[in-house]
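hi!! sorry for the late reply, been swamped w classes. u asked for the two structures so here they r. pasted raw, havent cleaned anything up. first the sequence of the first protein and right below it the tokens
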Amino acid sequence: MTKELSGLHGLADPKVGEMVEYIVGEQQRIDDVEQPKLLKIVRARTTPWTPGELVEACAPGYYAAPLPICRMLYTTVRAMRPERVVEFGTSYGLSTLHIAAALRDNGGGRVTSVEMHEGKAAAARENIAEAGLSDHVEIVVGEASQVLAEVPGPVDFLYLDGWAEFYLSVLKAVEPKLRSGALVHADDTGKFAAGAKSYLDYVRDPANGYVSVEITDGQGLELSTYTGAGREAV
């Protein structure tokens, strides 16, 4: 009997639950100190960031998605039943764990998550392995807009939770692989509205093939469905 048929679910798995609790605890402990430092640096910045500069600035913190968003990802993946999920921004793997748990509960599927910081990527792999979810996860180190251009399609679900200024370039790298009806979930679009503007302008323009809706949750998130724009998925 498969786990799906047994009535259990991945978030009730003790190994998954213990790892989620660990990451959340570390995030709260560390980010309470590091986030004010990062905000000070960001507010003083007057020129565009390079990906490498951002990796260095964010290296001391966790900056994972809030737990309610992670649970939303789990429920979304369970409902969608995607075969291929792509994630921009791994950090220590909190959101990745929720996606992978849902994929396992669905009976299959894989999430490819991209992280530029090698130390965080290595830690995320360890966390995911300890949670018993490695079979459903691939963590790739590199600049997302370059790495994700090589991901095979079709992509069913794209989750954006890196730096908002790079959302549009990441979307365009993955867009040729998106299947018609694919979901794109972009976090922090309110919190980092200035950086997300080009991305939001793009997905809110029907000419680009998306139906998009803003959801206000304190940080802001944008849910967009790719309509296919008259082409077949890769």
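now the second protein. again sequence first, tokens right under
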Amino acid sequence: MSVTGYSRMQIRLHWVVFGLVVVQFLFAGGIGQAFGHYIETGEKGVTLLVALHILLGLAILVLAFWRLGLRFLHGVPAPDPSHTPAQVMLARVIHGALYLLMVALPASGMLAWSLGSELAAGVHAAFRVILVLLLLLHVAAALMGQYIKKDGTLTRMLRPEG
């Protein structure tokens, strides 16, 4: 399927998920403390921050599947012709890993919290680090494409096709 840009819904979901991920990072300390307390005492202390973290994680998971569905139904724009095959492959790997993490982070967090699993918590923490690194690469590539190469990369995620 050949499309010239992202749909309005794809763009909205992209930015909503981005916002939710930022909020998750800003307020992750609350669940981290609650998890430590849970491991030490066996008691789950569900505070507002814990509930918020869990609900937003579930929202990210649902929205990730929605985004994947739209990606398969609507398609995505072809890579810019000025991109090398290596750049295209790297972009695909990063996008794939980001989608994988949008599913794996909530899943590992749910396992950690529901089972009191320190192993799952460790995996969740490692995934967080990987997510930050991939997001930095993703943002850097978008900004470089938009402002240095002037290929319109960022514009495609700001303005719907058509």
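hope this helps!! also noticed smth abt the second:
DSSP finds six helices and no strands in the chain.
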